[in-house]
Amino acid sequence: MNNMYINLAEDNFSVLHVVALSGRTIETTGPMRVAKELVLGLSAQGIQAEVLAGFLGQASMSEENLNCTLVKVRPLTARFPTSSLTSVDLIRQLYKKINTNHIVHIHFGRDLVSFLSAILCIFLDRPYIVQTHGMVISDPRKFIKIIDIVFTRFLVKRAKRILLLSEQEEKEKRELKLNCQSFILRNGLRTQVSNRDEELITIPRIVFCSRVAPEKGITRFIDLAKMAYQKGIEAEFTVYGPIDDSHGNLAQELHKAQNFCRYGGVLSHETVLNTLQDSDLLILPSTYDPFPMAVLESLSVGTPVLISSLCGNAAALKEHFPDFVVDGRNLEDYWQKFLNLWQLRFYRERRNQIIEVCSAIFGLDTVISNLLRIYQEAMESPV
Prior knowledge:
This protein is α/β, with parallel strands linked by helices. The protein has 13 helices and 15 strands.
């Protein structure tokens, strides 16, 4: 099927999106949320798009018009609980669906599902593209370097295109010697009109909505909540998201902070947007994050965010809302930005403006248009 012309709009063009893990319980992973939006956007353009993903625990992906197949997976080894996920049923489904679609879009990481998908594409002579979501970055560990030499570089180089989130990820690609043609494809999301009744809002609601892990900045969020509490600022600070099992002390930290910071548990995909819309501010002080979907989802419903300048696309956001981006690294830098937003009443009168800016920069229509062009070029390219 390589090096062929196909009219995407008229030739029943079909694309399969592959995601290693949809979620562990009721939450949905970032790559799965990206894939869901892309598949829905492609379907709206008349493309036959579907997503195949592994799941652990309870499968939850109810969305009208979403063509989604969830397959039970399990880790081959407890040492690598996510990267070693697989199952016989998954391999069977991959073979069947790769063989019946024109192109395969792999949401690619250093994991067995990604590697198997790419290998099957090569075996079945099916063109594929990879979208890395910042998951393939340089890593000094020896066994990771071996994996990159044996699998990552070979499989990524064989892809028709590699899709990156930002210029920072482009630098990471060069460090890993992934010498293949790449494109910047921002995450996209459908925006909504804010329908909050501001007159009913009394105490501001500040949320952390992500995987609860050190690199996501959870400790910084707890420290901000404690500082607000000590200074007599009335606000509700709530943490939502699965607690990373590899950091056993985080649950204890949240328990100790319960007087000023509540743990709200894990949100299902269906309730994330509603929770963000009912909130006044999302704070995500990540030390490294190519572009977390929670930030995009928050902006799409008009809720302001407070993020580190290390967060992907922070530069684009800072052009329009400088109060949303923290340049410093210490607690005082975050506190000053928080106070600015507090004094501005968290942009409550400008929520629709936030939505408009989000739509202009990260609107799904623009992303889908760019993706269709990439698919077309990939189908026509011999390399």
